[in-house]
Please model this.
Amino acid sequence: MPKKPFYITTPIYYPSGNPHIGHCYTTVACDSIARYKRMQGYDVMFLTGTDEHGQKIEQKAMEAGVTPKQYVDGIVATFKKLWSYMNISYDRYIRTTDDYHVEAVQKIFKALYDKGYIYKSEYMGKYCTPCESFWTDSQLDEDGCCPECHRPVKVAKEEAYFMKMSPFADRIEKLLTETDYLRPKTRATELVNNFIKPGLEDLCVSRTTFKWGIPVTFDDKHVVYVWIDALSNYITALGYENSAHADFEKFWPADVHMVAKDIMRFHAIIWPAMLMALDLPLPKHLAVHGWITFLNKQGEAQKMSKSLGNVVDPFMLGERYGVDAIRYHILREMALGADSAFSNEIMINRINSDLANGFGNLVSRTVAMADKYFGGKLPTEREAEDIDEQLIGCVSAIREKVDKCIDETRLKNALEEIFTAVDRANKYIDETEPWKLGKDEAKRARLASVLYNLLEAIRVISTLLSPFMPTTMPKVWEQIGASQSDVTYENAGRFGVLPLDVTVHKGEILFPRIDIDKEIEELNAIIEKNMADAKAKLSDAEKADEFAVPELADEITIDDFAKVDLRVALVKSAEKVKKAKKLLCLQLDDGMGGRQVVSGIANWYAPEDLVGKKVIIVANLKPVTLCGVESQGMICAADAPDGSAKVIFPDQSLPCGAKIR
Ligand code: MSP
Model:
């Protein structure tokens, strides 16, 4: 009988910076599901790739002095290196710069145009450059900024093609609320209330302001704008509208698209609309997970960002603790739908408790006892007791539970189920006290039963864990004397598979216990250095990008402005104001006989930083008394992104008293 197909996808990643642990989550999760399904006997297609077009990449390449293609080639190589390092068993890797994808997207765009779903018009809206997204006023956050990255947006207008969305609104609402497409389904409410109920707006699907995109064949001023290009990857990679592949019939519709919450809207609304417009079947499930956030020293969860320097490097973690421990940790911590905070402490505690003390210890104790009491080879006599049934019952039941979790994309729960069996087996050791049995020759058969039951429990557990930790489990099989045919999916649902006289082989410690204090100190030092480096490295443009520009004050006339008398003045002397930590008292030459000004800049400037420098003052400000000291005017300074104030130093050749207009 031919194997049943199973198609699972990650998002295609932007190669605009090196991948980090956050990118690993979806990929490791999909990999574990793909491996599990292969183990179950499915014919699996696991797709990942990179989303290589767009203005941001064009800009980054320009800054780096290379072509966009050269730029993405370098980063794609790092992504591929990471996936191979993390043991990601993808079957296909799509790059949106691949010729077949370009050709297919052009055909898809034209087909949608010919069907009347795409039309030409003019776009005016709020545009977020970093996210390459236009937003409507109702979508902006409460500060009027981008709802995704919360950075300021700008008003932009251009000729563009649009895709009609309203014809699909009812079907999409039903898809989200009446089917189990969306996981977790609780997220449907926000989509329906925020996007569908207010009326689905047509989608801008082309751009004319940059070149690095797929050209629209019938209007070469335009390139296809991100989502039609990116989302189509899920079908072009199978050969839709191209001849590079021929698996579309076999694998479409996808069984699972897995994405993080920030791109849920595109996959829950726009993607189904595109497929409906193309008359294609819809994917079966969209699994949406949260972000891996970084828990900073203050206990606040921050989004990982290169500019903050808080991105956790998977290569570094893998070198220290092993790739499987990292895979386990990220999958075990994140519940579908919720964010999960990453901290070095949580990670190390998790590895120590579950892997070193829990599973690792179960294996090493069992193998060591079989070695010590029986020279590694179990005798065939047996003596069962009632308590064995509890262990056997628990272990035999987990495969079915794990199957269900995998089918519902609940990987954290799948691991929890498996670890209930680990705990049960460790408890069984405490209950049966094999070290006591080992002292009594008359208990040989009982001891053999106990150790055999433990080896069987380990066999089942390690088989079910192998899709999650594919490097370590073969080492376990070697230690417990299991052959390849013992560790199949079928045998993971049975007890009593290993030969009665199985031979164990003591091996390396699977998950060495981590010295938490030492490691935390070292990891914290690494992250602090990264944060400091990131701060120092931020280009001025990026700093400006990070900075939330305050709202513009109400409009004034030139006459209003003329009322403010700004002048150049020289700081002759300066001193701290006693009893007022923030204040400096400055004596100024203002070209008009001199004056004294008190300024709240003592946190950032020492008196010697200012003496001898020319500054700008508001010369006609009504005097006030600050902490008992009179201030005749104020010094002009700008608010910096880090919360400090930066004094404005004018051209130092200007004479004192020069007027600024
Ligand atoms: N190119 C688009 C996806 C197009 S799919 C047709 C994109 N790329 S991305 O590289 O910015 O992000 C890819 C995925 O990684 C997104 O789901 C994003 O949310 C996810 N993650 C990026 N950082 C993450 C964490 N810190 N934690 C979990 N997932 C994160 O969006």
